[in-house]
Amino acid sequence: MAVFRNRRLLSTNSNRKDNYLKAEEAEIPDVKLPSAEKLLVLGGNGFVGTHICREALERGLTVSSLSRSGRPSLQDSWADNVVWHQGDLLSPDSMKHALTGVNSVISCVGGFGSNSHMYKINGTANINAVRAAVEQGVKRFVYISAADFGLINYILRGYYAGKRATEKELTTKLPYGGVILRPGFIHGTRRVGQMKLPLSIIGAPLEMILQHAKLLTQIPLIGSLFIPPVGVTSVAKVAVTAATDSAFPPGIVDVYSILQHSQRKST
């Protein structure tokens, strides 16, 4: 009888201990700890760049940005959590300080103008960034490029020549860690001075329709007009995933793949 009581006592104590441990586990809050992953966004104060910075912060990353103007005039609270560097990619030495301790880089740098200017901004500046990042030991580099648009490629030949030159440099220097996103028209709310342009009014409906009409892009001469737009939040989500997930495959990611990846749950 005494043995039974002892066993019962031991069982009771064990149950109490298990219940205590379960209660302790239940009380642990689900808190996202700061990540040791450090991301540098080139052109982080622009339309696409600001969305990338916000996406990265939401995932708990340490985020910094480098651009010619430095911190933007945004009053949003999230901007206080980004380290804003000022520098010029056409002067590679001016970006070395921003690369200290960085694990991955996303470049949104690009622009329009004369063909020589477009090549310089979309090509030379980004090529400098790729080389500087590799020299500093960065293992993953994501470049926001652009989809081919047929005749438009010729009209904006400096723009596209610069983009493709950067792509070539990236795949050469980082064959296993370079990712190239090629979206078409990127829609969202774009700020121009104090104005907000709701580009999604046109972009979102077209995206819904054209993402299921891939065959139309094969039509000679006009096929590129049917490339679906993509939301800026989708581009940001895929860019951050590509920069931080070593399992994300290197190489070119077209607009259809961007849409597919954006629908997957972020980790």
TrEMBL record:
The record places domain NAD(P)-binding at 43-187
Q: Which InterPro entries match?
A: ComplexI_NDUFA9_subunit, NAD(P)-bd_dom, NAD(P)-bd_dom_sf
Domain of life per record: Eukaryota
Kindly name one Pfam family recorded for this protein: NAD_binding_10
Coiled-coil regions in this chain? none
SUPFAM superfamilies in the record, alphabetically? NAD(P)-binding Rossmann-fold domains
> Mind telling me which PANTHER family this protein's record contains?
NAD(P)-BINDING ROSSMANN-FOLD SUPERFAMILY PROTEIN, NADH-UBIQUINONE OXIDOREDUCTASE 39 KDA SUBUNIT-RELATED
Q: What is this protein called?
A: NAD(P)-binding domain-containing protein
